[in-house]
Design brief:
The chain has 248 residues and is an alpha/beta fold. The protein has a domain of 167 residues: Rossmann fold. The chain is 35% helix and 25% strand. The protein is built from nine helices and ten strands. A six-stranded mixed sheet has the order 6-7-8-3-9-10, with helices on both faces. A four-stranded antiparallel sheet has the order 2-1-4-5, with helices on one face. Helix 3 packs across helix 4 and helix 3 packs parallel to helix 5. The longest helix has 14 residues. It is globular, with a radius of gyration of 18 Å. The N and C termini lie far apart (46 Å). Bound molecules: adenosine-5'-diphosphate. Adenosine-5'-diphosphate binds next to helix 1. Adenosine-5'-diphosphate (ADP) binds next to helix 1. GO terms for molecular function: ATP binding; ATP hydrolysis activity. InterPro entries: ABC_AA/LPS_Transport (IPR051120), ABC_transporter-like_ATP-bd (IPR003439), ABC_transptr_urea_ATP-bd_UrtD (IPR017781), BCA_ABC_TP_C (IPR032823), P-loop_NTPase (IPR027417). Keywords: ATP-binding, Nucleotide-binding, Transport.
Length: 248
């Protein structure tokens, strides 16, 4: 039962590249339905952490569980996706020549658990899911539009929508509002707040105004481990965090 408890549990994770510790005994856990922001200077280990969660990088040591029972370190990348982890990289990667709706349908058809749908028409439930996601990402009036003609922000929402088609329990999002207009950023904040609860979100973000809008809890990474954790106000008041951001 994932309706309570821990969605993601990382303990003592270490990753070295040629002796350099990109992650150094990193421990972090997310509750089910939580919206957590991850901040930290360049090189802090944020990307490496996401790579470990998604099976792209194997740690030298440590534990990583998805929910109570799924040992992430035993799964390959595709199996992590199938288990319910969706990852969004910074740059949008939608199929530019397809319509918004076709992009969403394609995401559904790419689901390994439902491969048969490649050859069949969408079921009523699936059509409903497309409608639901179009509403969530606020592209319901753009369903027929060529994805390549969308604004940068709309492309990012569409890609989030493509992840949502697979109903992931955990969403990992890397700098989702980079390059967005203020209006798009506000809408993205609303979207994330509406997704929290139903999904667990881990958002890596540098835009502190955006973080302020969405996060209950912020984790600051530095030199491969957790430097501070708490509300944005708490971590911003932490001397060690101030020092890291201002440089020594
Ligand atoms: P962040 O995402 O917080 O900027 P990264 O996880 O990308 O940090 O990187 C952490 C550190 O590990 C950086 O110093 C980076 O240069 C190093 N690193 C990341 N990936 C590799 C790799 N494949 N080979 C060597 N060094 C790497």
């Amino acid at each position: 039962d994932l309706s309570h408890g821990v969605a993601l549990y990382l303990d003592d994770i270490s990753v070295s590249f040629d002796g350099f510790k990109a992650l150094n005994k990193l421990s972090l856990s997310l509750d089910v339905g939580e919206l957590r922001c991850i901040i930290g200077p360049n090189g802090a280990g944020k990307t490496t952490m996401m790579d470990v969660i998604t099976g792209k990088t194997r740690p030298d040591a440590g534990t990583a569980f998805f929910g109570q029972t799924i040992d992430l370190l035993k799964l390959r990348e595709a199996e992590v996706v199938a288990a319910g982890v969706g990852r969004k990289f910074q740059k949008p990667t939608v199929f530019e020549d397809l319509s918004v709706q076709d992009n969403l349908e394609l995401a559904l058809k790419s689901d390994k658990r439902a491969r048969a749908t490649l050859f069949f028409r969408l079921s009523a439930t699936q059509r409903l899911r497309v409608e639901e996601v179009l509403e969530q990402i606020r592209l319901h009036d753009q369903a027929g539009r060529r994805a390549g003609d969308l604004s940068h922000g709309q492309k990012q929402w569409l890609e989030i929508g493509m992840l949502l088609m697979l109903e992931p329990q955990l969403l990992l999002l890397d700098e989702p509002v980079a390059g967005m207009t203020d209006f798009e950023t506000d809408r993205t904040a609303e979207l994330f707040l509406s997704l929290a609860g139903k999904h667990t979100l881990m958002v890596v973000e540098h835009d502190m105004e955006f973080v302020r809008k969405i996060a209950d809890k912020v984790t600051v990474l530095h030199e491969g481990s957790v430097l501070a954790e708490g509300s944005l106000e708490q971590v911003q008041a932490d001397e060690r965090v101030v020092e890291v951001y201002l440089g020594r």
